[in-house]
Each structure stands twice: as structure tokens, then as C-alpha cells.
Design brief:
With about 375 residues, the protein is an alpha/beta fold. About 35% of the residues lie in helices and about 15% in strands. The protein has helices at about 5, 50-65, 75-80, 100-105, 125-130, 155-160, 175-180, 215-225, 230-245, 245-265, 285-290, 305-315, 345-350, 365-374; strands at about 65-70, 90-95, 115-120, 135-140, 165-170, 190, 205-210, 270-275, 295-300, 320, 330, 355-360. The protein is globular and about 75 Å long. The structure holds pyridoxal-5'-phosphate. The site of pyridoxal-5'-phosphate (PLP) has 15 residues, from helix 3 and helix 4.
């Protein structure tokens, strides 16, 4: 079966009792047990819920993993995955990590004795050099946010395997439609389902998918124990969103390519960051490890003043945090997604005050370009 078909037909699309072509929202906290010596499949919705299960199985199928887990947000997913580590462990992460992930690693997990070294992961030597005797995991995010830097996934996996380290990747930007890291040897895939999986800017959710049963058992222990589960209504929304993943990704990527090419020609644009442009330094690696480039790009304007004006004047583009929805969003990393990174550190990373990030939606690309032009 081809992937486009798998998105719709993975065994989780028909409700077994009625034949309904949508798994209902099982809005129940608990389940009657007919025989307490032989409890049913579902007991209590923190431990398991049929709507959540349909979504989780779909996620596992799409990432080619053994098990999927739905969490209350992308950050709940990331935090729960990191929670399989223990005091004294050391993590290596990319220096231009998603702001929220940077925040929990530097200000939350440190309180529990878990330390992180941040490196420029586009150079594999940096990863190798950061390994210590207590290093336990390597956390990847590629393309990175907001500068769309590309990390060689298989290259990092090879280093991790040499040193017996767990690899975790935030696969939010590509979605499983364009990039399936478990097939490249990664151990744990994480998503903010709020973005491309949900796709409609109407739900906050997260996902973790594992390859091995051993790691699945650890993640389930955290999911059930910590309890940051996604509710049935939100599971249903994400599950429905996934049905159109392919159509959205394909269209939005085409539009992103068009907008990136247009931006490149503008005299007031100094840099365009999009891995779908052949001059992007990560273009080759991206071609090798993913089947697309996604619908997020960023660019720098000649002056900070112009960046601020664009955000004031756009009419079609929403000015907001988040990405991956059907509506196009323009965001300002310095004051939004990356505000939690101290300014000097931000500037060093290239997240300057003239940087704008775009998430391209389903509008007519020409209208989106006209809006920017204005
Ligand atoms: C949005 C986002 C997150 C956090 O997800 P939430 O659903 O907002 O908690 C993590 N990583 C990336 C790359 C994101 O874009």
C-alpha cells in the first residue's frame, strides 16, 4: 500500500461496533467492568480511551513505529519523552531548538539533575565532541526552528549507536508525510500535533512514537503515571486532521516554494531560509532523508523597521505563534516562539529582530505574495 493510502486506511478508520466511518468521541472517564477478575480492555481514560487509541495507532502506523502516544500538547509529549531519563543523565540538543524545549531543558530538567549541552548539530563533529561519560540521549530537531537548519539524521544515529545513546527527534516541521525518522534508526519521534498533524489551528496536542517495545513501555509508564494525556475530543480533532495531511502538505509545500522563490528576488529581503532552495546549505542532506521540504520558511528584511511594518500591514497573513495550519501565519520569533531565549544568545544564533517566519497555508499563493508586497 502506498503512503497516501495508508494515511486513510491503517485499520483505525472504521468504528467496529457500528461501522461508522469516524471513530466517535468516547467522552468517558471510566468503563464498567463486567467481571473484576477479568478487566476489560478499557478501565479508566488516563490509562486508555478508544478515541485516543485510534489516534495513537494511526500515529504509530504513519511513523512506522510499534506504538504511538497522544499527549496534551507538544510540550507534554517532549517533557514526557525526556522524563524517561534520570538524575545524572546528560543530553545533547541542537542550539536552535524550539524555544519551549530549550526552556524545559535549561530551567526544568536541570532541577532534576539532567544537564544538556547545546551544539550546532549541522556539524556532526560538534555532536561527537559533546559526548560525555554520562551522556544518555541526543535530541534532534530538523529542520530547525526558525532558521530551518538541517541535521543529518542518519549521521547522528550512527554516532548515537556507537555510544549506546537514545535518539529523540522533534519531527513537527516535516510531519510523517515528508520525514520518517524511525526508518533512519531514530528511537523516539515527537510531534506537536497542534501543527501539521491537526492542521486547522483548532487543537493543542502532542505525540510520541517509538520503535522498540522496551521504549514504548517506558513512555507508557510516563504517560499513564504523569497523566498528560490528550482528551477524547482533541484526539478526534487530530485524528480527523490527519486524514487530509497529504493534501495539505503537498499544496502548502508548493505554495511555500513559490513564496520562497519570490522572496529571493526582493531587494528588501537579505536572506531566505528554506530547505527547498538548492542554495540552502542543508539541501542535499534534506533530499536524502526526507521526501519534501515542508511549508515553513523564514527570511530577513533589510531593516528591523521593515519587519515591524510588514507585521502591522499584512491583512491575509495572521500574525501569530504556531504553524502548520490551513491558514497562513507570519510570526516574529524574537518576540514570540523564541522570546524565552536570552537576547544575546538569540542574536548569536541568528534569530535577529529582522527575522520573520512564515507558515504557508491553503490560500492562493499569489494572494499571499500580493499581501506581502503591499
Ligand atoms: C509548537 C512546537 C512545539 C510545542 O508544541 P505545543 O503543542 O505548542 O506544546 C514543539 N516543537 C516544535 C517544533 C513546535 O513547532
Amino acid at each position: 500500500m502506498k503512503y497516501g493510502t495508508l494515511i486513510l486506511h491503517n485499520g483505525n478508520e472504521i468504528e467496529p461496533h457500528t461501522g461508522a466511518l469516524s471513530i466517535p468521541i468516547y467522552q468517558a472517564s471510566t468503563f464498567h467492568q463486567h467481571d473484576i477478575d477479568h478487566p476489560g480492555k478499557y478501565e479508566y481514560s488516563r490509562s486508555g480511551n478508544p478515541t485516543r487509541e485510534a489516534l495513537e495507532r494511526t500515529l504509530a502506523a504513519l511513523e512506522n513505529g510499534t506504538r504511538g502516544f497522544a499527549f496534551a500538547s507538544g510540550m507534554a509529549a517532549t517533557s514526557s519523552a525526556l522524563a524517561i531519563l534520570k538524575q545524572g543523565d546528560h543530553v545533547i540538543a541542537p542550539e536552535d531548538l524550539y524555544g519551549g524545549s530549550y526552556r524545559i531543558l535549561t530551567r526544568f530538567f536541570t532541577e532534576f539533575g539532567i544537564e544538556t549541552t547545546f551544539v550546532d548539530m549541522t556539524q556532526l563533529d560538534n555532536v561527537r565532541e559533546a559526548i560525555r561519560s554520562n551522556t544518555k540521549a541526543i535530541f534532534l530537531e530538523t529542520p530547525s526552528n526558525p532558521l530551518l537548519k538541517i541535521t543529518d539524521i542518519a549521521g547522528v544515529v550512527a554516532i548515537a549507536k556507537e555510544h549506546n545513546l537514545i535518539t529523540m527527534i522533534d519531527n513537527t516541521f516535516m510531519s510523517p508525510y515528508y520525514q520518517r525518522p524511525l526508518d533512519l534508526g531514530v528511537d523516539i519521534v515527537i510531534h506537536s500535533a497542534t501543527k501539521f498533524l491537526g492542521g486547522h489551528s483548532d487543537v493543542i496536542g502532542g505525540a510520541v512514537i517509538t520503535k522498540s517495545e522496551a521504549l514504548a513501555a517506558k513512555i507508557y509508564f510516563v504517560q499513564n503515571g504523569f497523566g498528560a494525556v490528550l482528551g477524547p475530543q482533541d484526539c478526534w480533532l487530530v485524528h480527523r486532521g490527519i486524514k487530509t495531511l497529504r493534501a495539505r502538505m503537498e499544496f502548502q509545500q508548493q505554495a511555500a516554494l513559490k513564496i520562497a522563490a519570490w522572496l529571493k528576488e526582493q531587494s528588501w529581503v537579505t536572506d531566505v531560509y528554506y530547505p527547498g532552495l538548492p542554495e540552502h546549505p542543508g539541501y542535499e542532506v534534506q533530499q536524502r532523508q526526507a521526501s519534501g521540504f515542508g511549508a515553513v520558511l523564514s527570511f530577513k528584511t533589510d531593516t528591523v523597521e521593515r519587519a515591524l511594518q510588514i507585521m502591522k500591514r499584512v491583512q491575509l497573513w495572521s500574525v501569530a505563534v504556531s504553524l502548520g495550519g490551513v491558514e497562513s501565519i507570519l510570526s516574529y520569533p524574537a518576540k514570540m516562539s523564541h522570546a524565552s531565549i536570552p537576547k544575546p544568545e538569540r542574536e548569536r544564533l541568528g534569530i535577529t529582530d529582522n527575522l520573520i517566519r512564515l507558515s504557508v497555508g491553503l490560500e492562493e499563493p499569489d494572494d499571499l505574495i500580493d499581501d506581502l508586497k503591499r
